[in-house]
Amino acid sequence: MTLHHLTMTGIEARPVLLELQRPIVARIATITHWPLVLIDLHTAEGVTGRSYLEPYLPKSMRYLVPALHDLGELFKGRRVAPGEMFDAARKSLHFVGYEGLSMIAVAGLDMAAWDALAKAANLPLCVLLGGTTGPVPAYNSNGLWLKDPTEVAAEAIELRAEGGFKALKLRLGRDSIADDLATVQAVQEALGPDVDLMVDFNQGLSLAEALRRCHRIDDLGLAWIEEPIIYDNLAGYVRLAAELKTPIQIGENFYGPRELYKALQMGACDLVMPDFMRIGGVTGWLRSAPIAAAAGIPVSTHLYPEVAAHVMRVTEGAHWLEWQNWADPILQRPFEIINGELHVPDVPGVGIDWDEKAVSAHLVH
Fold first, then answer.
1. 317 and 172 fall within a common domain
2. Strand spans (E) along the chain
3. What is the pLDDT at residue 97?
4. Separation of alpha carbons 245 and 256, rounded Å
């Protein structure tokens, strides 16, 4: 194995907007189009590291793209060293805060830097990190939004068949708890007992409403209850985790390792699922996952299935990978799902390359 010295020459960041096959219909938002910021980290040695960001709101790309270009200028001429770059990038944004768009931009840079480093070593990222290529258990998160129970149950059968999935995520938070209960029942009857079912309220409830609703679903055999209340109400999550038998899942809104540590220290959850753009990319994950492991808390992923698959291969306590294919339209070779597992390709880096024709068709000007 030869690790080449890479010198960064700049970053190219391009905003694209994709139409979702199954629009997001959650308690707090309806989303029909999905924004992506495609990142190319260029080096003097000709190696290009790639990553993307999924910032939810198209308007957020207007701020992220310039921020990424600024980070490219900051590190121009410097060695590609993800750990050092992560710390330096965060410190450069100290006066505007470490969270929000600041961390998201740093995470995009970090993921591209790791991809470049693994490509230079001619190794898949998971191998560079000390693991092997192979399968990662995944659940399908591509649908099951707030629609009619019969329609959701039919869609659940479709989602299971998309890759032989053994677990699916269902969204809750309808106006009536009776409608939520009817939907859970319809999906469980459609799928049978051999498919795990996670539920996600997408932060849509008050604490009082969450206590009432979550107790009503606590005996339904669910794999977890995800984010019933606003993400930063950790005291509320402490109460929910203490009162409920069903595991409480949070973490997609942890901005960096300290936030994960704080939640676990308080006893705010039973499971965690960091999001790569908020936890701090690969470096943020590598600094966060051991905290959960030390506490005996299983770790799942949120979005970014390609880079997620690599880090899950080296994560103690790896639980479930969230599978969603929203970036597939602009990828040359989407990752393969077989029997409910995402398979890491045996290629250098993360394994993502852009379909430039599709990128051009969806580029935001």
1. yes
2. 8-25, 30-43, 48-53, 135-140, 167-171, 196-200, 224-226, 248-250, 271-272, 321-323, 336-338, 341-343
3. 80
4. 28
Per the structure, how many domains does the chain have?
2
- Inside any domain, residue 228: yes
Residue span of the structural domain in which 149 resides: 128-343
C-alpha 75/C-alpha 359 separation (Å) is 26
Mean pLDDT of 135-160: 95
DSSP3 helix / strand / coil % (the chain, rounded to 5) = 40, 20, 35
Q: Which residues neighbour 288 within 8 Å (Cβ) at sequence distance 6 or greater?
A: 254, 256, 257, 260, 274, 279, 280
Q: What does residue 329 show for φ and ψ, rounded to 5 degrees? A: -60, -20
Residues 115 and 162 reside in one and the same domain: no
Same-domain pairing of 60 and 160:
no
Residue in the structure block whose two tokens are 């965060």: 90
Record the tokens describing residue 251, joined without a space.
Answer: 């973490």
Nearest C-alpha neighbor of 103 from the set 60, 141, 135? 60
Residues 115 and 248 in one domain: no
What is the spatial distance between Cα 3 and Cα 281, in angstroms, rounded to a whole number?
21
- 152-198 pLDDT, tens digit per residue, is 999 999 999 999 999 999 999 999 999 999 999 999 999 999 999 99
Give the pLDDT score at 27: 83
Whether the model clears a pTM of 0.85, i.e. scores above it, the answer is yes
Residue type (1 letter), 364: V
Handedness of CA 177, 228, 34, 159 (dihedral sign): negative
DSSP-assigned beta bridge partners for residue 11: 41
**Rounded Cα distance, 304 and 325, in Å:** 9
Residue 351 lies in a domain: no
User: DSSP letter at 124?
Assistant: B
Residues 6+ apart with CB under 8 A from 135: 338, 341, 342, 343, 344
Nearest-10 crossing angle of helices 101-120, 281-294: 100
Residue at token pair 């990222």: 125
Mean pLDDT of the chain: 95
Half-sphere CA count of 345, side-chain side, radius 13 A: 15
